[in-house]
């Protein structure tokens, strides 16, 4: 009988050996085929993973997060010893002794799986699990398993054990798009890992074994049961006592789930748009675009910009902004109330005079993130609000005219272009100050004709009006007649040149840093002098006259200085107001998305109310 049993065992072992030889022969072929792929893909730093993009306001408070995967990598030295022991004892006791795989564990797994005709027994080391997380699928085939061994061995040749363990702890999946033990701590408890109790540490450590089964948001009791098993493992290996394990099991676990921070959508949406411009400028792409001769060349450069942007967003960055969160909220609430419940829309931009930073943005009523952003995407005709930039400032800069100089308010034509005044009347000789504060179109045309289009556009082109086209170099432009128009942000930005004559494009981003705090990008701080002190003095005087006794009567501020220019387009389709106080520069637009007459709203001066609210 013993001899028969011996024959049976020998036959089974021989059959198992043949099975293993066949499998190994096939996998050696597969492994050789993929050797180059293995060598190139094993370099972990090239693996793409998306770390969170965080935006902070001027006070360092987080107001927006962008991520599809929540990750917060932490160094191994900051991981509590209890966490390390949980994974070493429950997943891979021989981690610090093997070469990436454990032959004894693999043999046991093969025997069990062969007897059960399945691939459920894993025998995977921490290194193998890391390989699977980073490079391979979760399919349970011998082909994938053999490839996994090659990867694991190669990984151990390139990194020491602590580096591999750190990668593993930061790569594990904790359900709900959370990756890494540090991220799990902040996601499920909103606390740093080091501040968790041992019971809480064991609780989140339970999740990766089966993130669906142990998802604490859906299967809390399952997670709790595994937590208790992990505490028993710690006790049986004398990491904690049995009494401590009992105490920790009795501790009540209270989850405090992290919600993605998505505040101030109007501001955060613009920040992402500006980020692309910041990269283009810092990396020299804007210069390449300026030198590109064909549309194909421009398209390729734009692809490079997008690629660089995506790489940056995936790397995990902190965007430090100039946002005044309190003012942003106050401005939005106030403007929403002023605009009311109808379809009337508006946009507004507030810029800090001292820093030339954008402190608040109003993108439209009921704005949702990535909607049409009226502050920087809404291109509309500016009406007379553009006159100081195209006509009056260039006039003072290049001639001896002053606000007291005389100009006709009567009929004036250039060719067949014969505009009418806003009030529909003709006026005799008046001072430039009078023509300005009552916005006489005929006077503005005469003065523009005096300096010429070349001179006027020499100055207007210094600003960033992106929708200007060559056809706009016409006398109609001096009165706001453009092919497409301008945005609210562009108008506010250009008006900052009247603060002191210098100009640098207004920005929302102060700097971009990596997760270690190293500054990656920032804007140049130099400003260009556009207007002389004489011109600035004259323009500020004219803008003040508009408010005190001109078309801007009704504008108020607690500032010692306030000046503004109104603008109304043909058929009352757009109402504008641009100006500045001692502290802020702003531009306000109201209108309908599908332009129509607002003549019935003229006396309500809704844009005045908005201006008064956001500038105080």
Descriptive overview:
This protein is of the alpha+beta class. It is built from 23 helices and 16 strands. The strands form five sheets. Strands 2-1-5-11-12 form a five-stranded mixed sheet, covered by helices on one side. It has a five-stranded antiparallel sheet with strand order 7-6-16-15-14, sandwiched between helices. The chain has a two-stranded parallel ribbon with strand order 3-4. A hairpin with a 2-residue loop joins strand 15 and strand 16. Helix 3 packs parallel to helix 9, helix 5 packs across helix 6 and helix 16 crosses helix 22. It is elongated. It comes from Ureibacillus galli. Keywords: Carboxypeptidase, Cell membrane, Cell shape, Cell wall biogenesis/degradation, Glycosyltransferase, Hydrolase, Membrane, Multifunctional enzyme, Peptidoglycan synthesis, Protease, Transferase.
**Spans where pLDDT lies below 50 across 5 or more residues:** 1-14, 27-35, 111-122
Q: What is the C-alpha radius of gyration, as a whole number of Å?
A: 34 Å
Secondary structure category: alpha+beta
Strand order of the largest sheet: 2-1-5-11-12
The total beta strand count reads: 16
State the end-to-end CA separation: 102 Å
Shape: elongated
Strand content: 5-15%
Characterize the main sheet: 5 strands, mixed
What level of helicity do the residues show? Answer: 40-55%
Mean pLDDT: 89
Main location: membrane
Domain Glycosyl transferase family: 67-232
InterPro entries: Beta-lactam/transpept-like, Glyco_trans_51, Glycosyltr_51/Transpeptidase, Lysozyme-like_dom_sf, PBP_transglycosylase, PCN-bd_Tpept
Protein name: Penicillin-binding protein
